[in-house]
Amino acid sequence: MKKIRWGVMSTARIGTEKVIPAMQLGEYCTVTAIASRQLEKAQAAAGQLGIEKAYGSYEELLADPDNIRNKADIGGGGLMDIGCYCISLSRFIFGAEPWRVCGIKEEDTNMKIDRLTSGILEFADGTSTFTCATQLVPYQRVNLKTDTTTF
Q1: What span, in angstroms and rounded, lies between the C-alpha atoms of 90 and 85?
Q2: Does position 143 have pLDDT exceeding 80, yes or no?
Q3: Quick check: 78 and 117 in contact, CB under 8 A?
Q4: For a Cys-Cys bond, which of 3, 7, 75, 103 suits 80, CB 3.0-4.6 Å?
């Protein structure tokens, strides 16, 4: 089985002393990148832990064309990477498949993936709306409205 390549978005002590070393011991895991708000911290952690790439911002790591989320040929993009959880949660809460689906996406012209996707799922007992993105970190959410409750 191929190893899963990870990019870690933190140089906090718990990550560099506990989480990343544990990940590096895994048979099916390899840490190939690390990001911090300060490039010097990322470079120091990368050197200490033998990680090949260091980024001076989380955005740089997320925008890297080598990032699996940015590869259209293997299902990269917001909907496949993050939106699947919004859809699965909605199906789980309503206990059914939606009877109508509507969506819109914005495409990253360089990587040819959806960087922002919004959807509306209509169920017999209510509606779910969601927005997900690979380049919109602070706004990932799903809203559920039933006949009696709003989540």
Answers
A1: 8
A2: no
A3: yes
A4: 75
Q: What is the DSSP letter of 72?
A: G
User: Residues with Cβ < 8 Å from 9, sequence gap 6 or more?
Assistant: 34, 35, 58, 61
* Predicted TM-score of the model (pTM): 0.66
Q: Residue 79: name the closest of 112, 120, 116 by CA.
A: 116
Cβ atoms within 10 Å, residue 13: 8
> For 86-111, how does the pLDDT look when each residue is reduced to its tens digit (9 = 90+)?
999 999 999 999 999 999 999 988 88
138: pLDDT strictly greater than 70: no
Helices (H), the chain: 13-14, 20-25, 39-49, 58-63, 78, 84-94
Structure tokens at 96: 């059914």
Residue 139 to residues 8, 13, 49, 117, 132: CA-CA distances in angstroms?
Answer: 20, 27, 31, 12, 7
- The 3-state DSSP class for residue 46 equals helix
Domains in the chain: ranges and CATH: 4-64 (3.40.50.720), 74-146 (3.30.360.10)
